[in-house]
Amino acid sequence: MLLQAVRDIITDFSSNDTLQFSASVFGGDLVPTDGLSGADYRLGSNPRPRDSGSTFLFNTNSRTLSFDVDGKGSAAAVDIATFEGSYVPKANQIDIV
Is this model's pTM higher than 0.70 or not? Predict the structure, then answer.
């Protein structure tokens, strides 16, 4: 996996926006898709990855989007971005290219 621990700050994300992540950069079992499934995107005050496989996590307390390449495997989740404002990104707003 080529992903480095660099976190962006997103100041104005809304229902009209989309996030795009590269499957070849993020690795794991990501494949190109328009919008994630619910199994690939978890949100809550302490979101947990699925048992195995790549999972995006959104912590509603810290407003941080993270990526866990191997679910509950040995690799830790990596923070990707912190969101300002009250809008919470939806799974269908995260595309894999």
Answer: yes
